[in-house]
Amino acid sequence: MSRPVLEVRGLRAAYGRRQVLRDVTFNVAAGDVLTLLGRNGAGKSTTLLAIAGFVPNTQGEILLNGQPLCGPPHARMRQALGLVVKGRSLSGSLSVADNLRLAGVSRKELLELFPEMERRMTVAAGQLSGGEQQMLAVGRALLRRPQLVLLDELTFGLSPSMSRRVVDAVLAQAARDGIAVVAVEQHIHIAERIATHAAVIGEGVVRLHLHRDELLRRAAEIEAIYLGLPVDV
Ligand SMILES: Nc1ncnc2c1ncn2[C@@H]1O[C@H](COP(=O)(O)OP(=O)(O)OP(=O)(O)O)[C@@H](O)[C@H]1O
Ligand SMILES: [Mg+2]
What we know:
- This is ATP-binding cassette domain-containing protein.
- It contains eight helices and ten strands.
- The chain has helices at about 45-50, 75-80, 95-105, 105-115, 130-140, 160-175, 190-195, 220-225, and strands at about 5-15, 20-30, 35, 55-65, 65-70, 80-85, 150, 180-185, 195-200, 205-210.
- The strands form two sheets. A six-stranded mixed β-sheet has the order 6-7-8-3-9-10, sandwiched between helices. A four-stranded antiparallel β-sheet has the order 2-1-4-5, covered by helices on one side.
- The longest helix is centred in the last third of the chain and has 18 residues, at about 160-175.
- Magnesium ion (MG) binds near residues 44, 45 and 152.
């Protein structure tokens, strides 16, 4: 079996003296989509931010193709990481065209994925609608041909049709280019639609690793972790 694109082992992260992640461990192979599940405040976003280098107090191993992923966020992005995290993936004061240029993504490529962005090229990213911002962020992150993409609640605040559109674009692009994806999700039914497998975080630890087929069948166990109840695994 070939080596996973992303290996996260014993990841610990803290804000000041508050330890949020105590032992987060998972792998993601090329073309796979891992969804991170867990209740509000479980540490899902912190896991993505720690992998991307935004949480200074982080320990444990993060390997990209067997090599340590380290340094400041921009260095990790150069090392083939794409990021769609609210407030961190776009330059709000720059136009759509300039955001693309910064990421080294051509306008043509974005328009192949999202033709509706054609008339928005000169608008500042911060003035786009939520759906448009997400289309631009997804285009920026995925069209650079990264090996790993981190997505935080991709569909949050989007209409059902826009959610489908953005999710389908991500899945198609990731499958085509063999990108490894880590997608934070709150909702088991969305996770079931997009994931190849899932990890459920509770009390700063991955409490459950599941294959997509098990997600709905084991929803009661997942919910017990959300509620902080003991689970037999
Ligand atoms: N910058 C920060 N400084 C201090 N504490 C933080 C910071 N960011 C997050 N936290 C705390 O860390 C914990 C985990 O937060 P995180 O945002 O990772 O959770 P989450 O699982 O993404 O939750 P949600 O589903 O609500 O987005 C929370 O208790 C939160 O209050
Ligand atoms: Mg979050």
